Amino acid sequence: MGFLQLHPNIRIRIITSFLTRVVGTMIFPFMAIYFSDKLGQALAGFLLFATICAQILTSFYGGYIADRWGRKKVLVYGQLIQCGAFTMMTLANSPLLDSAWLTFAMMLLQSASNGLINPAADAMLIDVSTKENRTFMYSISYWASNLSIAIGSVFGGLYFATHRFELLLALTLVGFVTLIITRFFMQESYQPTRQTSLPAGSRLLADLVKSYKKVLQDRRFLLYSLGGLFIFALEFQTSNYIAVRLSQEFQTQTLQFFDWFALEITGIKVFSLIQLENTLLVVCLSLLVTKLIGKTRPATAMYIGALLYIFGYAVTTYSNSLWVIVLTMFLATVGELMHIPTRQTYLAEIVRDDARSSYMAVNGLVLQGAKLSGAIGISLGAFLPSYGMALLFAGLGVMGLLLVRLVVRGLERENSMKEAA
């Protein structure tokens, strides 16, 4: 299996997402600094929180209409809105105009457009992939995502402060290129069998609630999502509790490189080091790990990956040894590369064919919940010692793995019965 053997829709989505994310990462991670400088730190936090809420809320609507209109129509409309938002953001940071409030309004609109786009795009990837090539597809997508973030972060740090207008202009151009490619080259992957017109007014809200009520009544999907949330919560401690703990507990060390030079290592530098290590390992090892897990049973790869992931992050939560932290982050990253693509493959089997976009919208809450757990971890860390936090996170991860295993075993039993019949 190679990239060119994947469905054209998959190739288009991976390439356009890569381009958008490369330029977007040069801009959006630095918007907190921009709004803090322009409007004050307290207000900046509220504004960024509002953009997250906008994406979550519109993702439910995006998933709902993508199951009634088809994927491509929603992708095109969402991308059109996004292009308009990018254009106005560029104008708001141009030599003609400097408006932080217009920038925020358009960033809010851009976040809402992501809410429309993402569930439809995720469902489309399931539509046009097969059980045999999904793990490879998700591995390539994950690799491309991390590579784009690595590239964007470097150039954003160098140029955001001095060339914000030019970066936004580049983002706008990439947005219009993506719109043209999506409109004229992407194929519709889902034709709804029922009436596609949407009800009006209160009937729309009632139908939307009814649609998601069915998703939330799917016990297997909920258990699988909850298990994923518990496992992914560990990774989001890195930039929250682990970062705070290292800055407070890690004893400054001096690394002597023969007689050439000495390097002082602080807790903050260790935090930066493990983030860099994680990114570089994902970029460099993704394809190798994909080949290795392709030779094993998917469930086995997912379980082993989760155990490495849990062990790595749990030890990193407690240890103050530089080399132990570096080693356990290596194990956690390898586990991440084994677990995430196979988890996505099983998720594709769990969701109902006629409501894939709605399922993917709810699945998006797993990531948001994991992010929230990162913030909670900081507060808990003020009361619990580091070994207590390590035990807590390890227990949470193992509980998540047991939930995932329960669902996967049931899924495999169903598949075996179907094959026997």
From TrEMBL:
InterPro entries to which the protein is assigned, alphabetical: MFS (IPR011701), MFS_dom (IPR020846), MFS_trans_sf (IPR036259), MFS_Transporters (IPR050171), Sugar_transporter_CS (IPR005829)
Entry keyword annotation includes NADP: no
SUPFAM superfamilies given in the database record: MFS general substrate transporter
Keyword terms: Cell membrane, Membrane, Transmembrane, Transmembrane helix, Transport
CDD domains in the cross-refs: MFS_MdtH_MDR_like
Membrane topology designation: Multi-pass membrane protein
Domain Major facilitator superfamily (MFS) profile residue range list: 1-412
Any GO MF annotation of the entry: transmembrane transporter activity
Gene Ontology CC annotations of this record: plasma membrane
Location of the protein in the cell: Cell membrane
Transmembrane segments: 12-36, 42-62, 142-161, 167-186, 221-242, 262-288, 300-316, 322-340, 361-384, 390-408
PANTHER family: INTEGRAL MEMBRANE TRANSPORT PROTEIN (PTHR23517:SF3), RESISTANCE PROTEIN MDTM, PUTATIVE-RELATED-RELATED (PTHR23517)
Name of the protein described by the UniProt record: MFS transporter
